[in-house]
Structures are given as structure tokens and as C-alpha cells.
Amino acid sequence: MVDKVEVGAEGRFLTVGFADGSEARFHAVWLRDNALDPATRDPGNGQRLITLGDIPAETRIASASGAGGVVTVRFAPEDKEVAFPAEWLARHVYDRAQGRAPGWCEEGVTVWDGSTGQAYRAPLSDLQGRGAVLADWLGAARATGCALSTDGPVESGALLEVVKLFGYVRETNYGTWFEVRTEVNPTNLAFTGLGLQGHTDNPYRDPVPSLQLLYCLENSAEGGESILVDGFNVAQKLRDEMPEGFDLLSRYCARFEYAGSAGVCLRTRLPMIELTPDGALRTVRFNNRSSAPIVDVPFEDMETYYAAYRRFGELVDDPANQITFKMVPGDCVLFDNRRLLHARTGYSGSGSRWLQGCYADMDGLLSTWAALQGSQKEAAE
């Protein structure tokens, strides 16, 4: 509901007062561009039917009123009237303080450490019902960066059933999926029994795969526990401890490369800590095995850069920032590869450890999550 609707000077903006006592201003051109009427947006898919060039540059608000939770605006010179639900306006307020320190997280992201983090668990059969359980599971993956399905079939390729819950496999030079187990003369250190430091996968790709899945088929070896680290938490800790170091890791590009198999030579030049233009954490790239010589940092900053790089690695290795768990056959862990680092403890030659992995994209997960939320809302109404 609204308790105030006031047209600003010369009709350039509109001030709306909401029932909770808050107020927000909306520019005339912004309101007109985001009009919800069927002549502006397709009622079926919501896409715009006009371009900004179709809106008069001199657009102004001729009049406005509010009643029954709806704000009605008449635009000049078109003499066009558009109704905006107050709830919609409240969800799209941009009239707020923008001065946040670099390294903040977008709404809905829950940063965690070893004492607060855990992977949301649900049986695969419950997730395949595509109801509230799947919505909660996907929502947890979005918020914390990870989720775990359990009790799945113990058969090769079963991880594709998990991907089908929300999207599609992103195929790479490693194939539709890849095996994670001890190999003779491996093309990648992941295919050995060595312990691995927390890392993000494929930093040598642009764009990097945004989701990774690891599905357990065997895990009777001694050791081989899985470890997850919230890279956003580590980045914020580095920012608080070493502001200059955080600035250097986010301002200068690192380099990554992979050429471990015939016909493949992948290279990127991107920051270890990537921020959006307004300073939100976007992507963490940390993989010592795939790091190439760093040559984009000025001489006078290189020592401080390396001190920050070292401290970032120490925070990744700190058990206080890790969650550790032993996967059992039928488990599948899904995690945001742009944010979470994954690791494992070493394992011995007795017994066996066999995981299959693949990549997918976050947009499919978010789309499925949003669609499920919409379906649940409609059912409730």
C-alpha cells in the first residue's frame, strides 16, 4: 500500500511513500521504460516491445495518483496512462545509498565459515518430485553456494540425473563428464591420490563453468574426505586484514593456463578476486596448479600482491574456514565454482575412491528456482 504519491519538479520524477514509512523517488524516463502495459511489454513472456528510442526524450509525468495498492501515472507528451503495483515499485527501488565498500555480497548470498557452513541435503528421489523440496535445495545452493543430493543410484553417469533437475551439462575438453580416481600417467593432478589444496576449477576458461557437480560411486579408501571453502568469506577476511592486498588481487589480472592434453591450450587473464563495477563480489579464481606467471602487476606492487596471494591461500587452508565431509556412494555435491573452493584430503592405495564430475551453468539453476517459486506462489493464491 502507498500513503503518498507526489510528482516532483517539472514532472521529472515521482516520490512514492510506502505504508512502512519509507519513501523512494522514481524518474519519469525509468517509469516509462519499465511500464507494465501490454503495449510496452509482451503479456506472455514479459519482454519489451519497444526500444528506448520509441520513448520521447522529453518524457515527463503529467499526473499521478495512488489507490488500493496501485500507483497510476500519466506520461506526457504521449498522454499515456500506466498502472504500477505498489509491491512491484517497492521491489525495484533504486533511490538508496550506493556507497558500499568493495567486497560486499549481493542480496540473498549467505557467507559462511567452518562453524556456520553446511551443505543442504535432500534425497534425490525427493528432488525429482520437483516441488518444494527441490525449490528449497536450489535456493540453498544459490544462497550458500552448495547443496548435496543423497541416496542416488550407484551407477556410472548417474550425475546427469542431478543436472536434469535444473539445467544442462556444460561439455568441455574433459567430456560430458570426467572420472575422478587414481590413474596411471594422469593428465591432471585431480586424477591421483594426492591431497589437493582448496581451488576453483578451470580458471583458465572464460567464462569459467559456474557450477560443478561431483557424484560418488565408491569411497572405501582411507582418507579422501571432501572439503569446501566459501571463497567470498575468505575474500572478505582478506579485505578486513589487508585492504591494500585485497585491492591488488581485485585490481590486477592473474594468468591461468592449461595444456595437459593434445590439442588443448587454454589461457585467461583475469583477477583472482573479481568484483562487479559497483564492488560486489562476483568470482574467485584460485588454483595454484593452473597459475601462469603473473606479469600484469607493476614492479612496485608485486611484493605486496604476493603477500596478499599468500595470505589468501593461508585463509583457504585454515580449517576454521572449511567444512569437511565424507561422501558415500549415491551422494552428489553441487557447488558454485565461481565462489566455492573445493579440496580433498589425500587417500591411500587400499580401498578405492571413484567420483564422476561434470559442469553446468548457474543460469539454469536460478531459472528453475524462480519458476518453482512462481508455481508455488500461484498454488498458494
TrEMBL record:
Q: Which PANTHER family match?
A: GAMMA-BUTYROBETAINE HYDROXYLASE-RELATED, OXIDOREDUCTASE AIM17-RELATED
Q: Where is the TauD/TfdA-like domain?
A: 121-359
| Boundaries of every Gamma-butyrobetaine hydroxylase-like N-terminal domain copy | 9-89
- Name the Gene3D superfamilies for this protein: 3.30.2020.30, Clavaminate synthase-like
Q: Which cofactor does it need?
A: Fe(2+)
Question: Per UniProt, which keywords does this protein have?
Answer: Dioxygenase, Iron, Metal-binding, Oxidoreductase
The family assignment reads: Belongs to the gamma-BBH/TMLD family.
Could you name the domain of life of the organism this protein comes from? Bacteria
Q: What is this protein called?
A: Gamma-butyrobetaine dioxygenase
Q: Is Metal-binding found in the keyword set? A: yes
Q: Which SUPFAM superfamilies match?
A: Clavaminate synthase-like (SSF51197)
Presence of keyword Plastid: no
Provide the GO MF annotations for this entry.
2-oxoglutarate-dependent dioxygenase activity; metal ion binding
Please provide the Gene Ontology terms (biological process) for this protein.
Answer: carnitine biosynthetic process
